Amino acid sequence: MKTNQHSEIIYSEEDICDLLMQASNVGSIKNLLVDSTVDLETVASVLENVPSFIRYDEIAANALSREEFDHRCQTHWFMPDEYKQLDIAEYVIRLCKTDAELQRVGQELLLYQERNLFNLLRYLKYLVDLMTENRLIWGVGRGSSVASYVLYLLGVHRIDSLYYDLDPEEFLR
Predict the structure, then answer these.
(1) What is the structure's pLDDT at 46?
(2) Low-confidence residues of the chain, pLDDT below 70?
(3) Got the DSSP string for the chain?
């Protein structure tokens, strides 16, 4: 398996075979970047529920600016549809127990919304659920992310920024 300069995985035919052998639901595999060695017609004829493949064009990929690459990544979140449809603001608000928590979450959600980061929050919810489900351990938190109470409620870190009176602007600047 190889990656390009943007750290996207480019799958070979062998990589695809390995991935398909490990997948419990082939239909859930979507938008794989494949190199020029993969015969897409043969793959499509063998599989009933064909994953969607995108032919990797190295020349076009190298022509992408960082902004174009970021935009492309931010419009194609690889997570289950249930998370893509999740009303993340409502979900986080329901986790609040006090008026102070509600006020802080409201303030932070406005900051996230201004920056168009709700999909990021949805993805983080998915990631935390996936890591919890698979019993993966991650750190208690580091850097400016611990200033976000929303991330604390989602379980991304374990530092109660409301208790320590950390400014959410530290994280979202």
Answers:
(1) 59
(2) 1, 5-6, 20, 23-32, 36-37, 40-63
(3) -EE-TT--EEE-HHHHHHHHHH-S-GGG---EEE-TT--HHHHHHH-SSPPPEEE--HHHHHH--HHHHHHHHHH---S-HHHHT--HHHHHHHT--SHHHHHHHHHHHHHHHHTT-HHHHHHHHHHHHHHHHTT----S--GGGGG-HHHHHHTS----TTTTT--GGGT--
Is there a contact between 14 and 1 (Cβ–Cβ < 8 Å)?
Answer: no
Range of the domain at 58: 2-76
The pTM assigned to this predicted structure is 0.63
The pLDDT of residue 13 is 74
In this structure, the answer to whether residues 111 and 158 fall within a common structural domain is yes
Out of 44, 76, 108, a domain closes at: 76
Among 30, 51, 76, residue at a domain's last position: 76
pLDDT of residue 91: 98
**Residues 104 and 47 both lie in one domain:** no
